[in-house]
Amino acid sequence: MTGRGRFVTFEGIDGAGKSSHIEWFADLLRKQGHRVSVTREPGGTELAEAIREWLLSRPMSMRTEALLAFAARQDHLERVIRPALDSGVWVICDRFTDSTIAYQGGGRGIALADIETLERWVHPDLQPDRTYLFDLDPSIAAERRRSARAADRFEAEQQAFFVRVREAYLARAASSGARFRTIDSEKSIEDIRKILEVDVLNY
Ligand SMILES: Nc1ncnc2c1ncn2[C@@H]1O[C@H](COP(=O)(O)OP(=O)(O)OP(=O)(O)O)[C@@H](O)[C@H]1O
Ligand SMILES: [Mg+2]
Questions:
Q1: Any idea where the domains of the chain sit in the sequence?
Q2: Which residues line ligand 1 (CB under 6 A)?
Q3: Strand order in 7-12's β-sheet?
């Protein structure tokens, strides 16, 4: 037995660069001998992927958004994340609860205390071992997104929305202690990978 797997999450506003690194990062860990599973939120199970489709495309209130995000997360934790970690697999997840804090809290305006209540209900015992926050000016992120693909319901939001999301992420990082590493996404992909390579040796 190798013991419990580590839980690593990638966070940041849309277009900040999460997906550009996640598979590379998983391969880096595999080369170090770890068993690794890459997943995403909302999503990661059949039910949670169906919820994702609705979240990204259907109009709904901010409370419904937050509750659906946690419904998807509950299923993902039960069926995928907890069993993997328990069997020694490292789980690398594209977004987790910090995204709900940033988007539904900072972006939409739900009180953080309400989201933290849901967090305590769904995963009182579990936080990521490491969270990489890809931090980028929203105007640069919008420019990068434009060349990538059609906008979903969140990506279609105005710049002011992403300014609030970014601020909420940075506040969460400041109040969450050691698990966060904030990465300046204006750096080149190559330079960011060097940072990740060094950091992964620390845990
Ligand atoms: N460090 C970088 N320098 C320049 N361009 C980058 C950098 N990182 C990513 N990009 C480009 O920015 C775009 C968005 O990156 P990516 O898809 O990784 O973002 P994301 O955080 O996963 O976004 P989303 O939340 O919408 O999935 C891509 O076209 C990617 O090639
Ligand atoms: Mg992505």
A1: 7-202
A2: 12, 14-20, 134, 144, 147-148, 185, 187-189, 192
A3: 36-40, 90-94, 7-12, 130-135, 180-184
Q: How many CB atoms lie within 10 A of CB 193?
A: 16
- What would the pLDDT profile of 99-146 be if each residue is shown by its tens digit? 999 999 999 999 999 999 999 999 999 999 999 999 999 999 999 998
What CATH number labels 7-202? 3.40.50.300
CB 107 within 8 A of CB 178: no
C-alpha Rg value of the chain to the nearest Å? 16
How many angstroms separate the alpha carbon of residue 16 from the centre of ligand 2? 8
Pocket probe for ligand 1: among 19, 133, 196, the residue whose CB has the most ligand atoms within 8 Å is 19
Written as six digits, the tokens of 177 are 């202690």
Output the six-digit token pair for 71: 């419904």
Average pLDDT of every residue of the chain: 96
Minimum-distance ligand to the CA of 14?
1
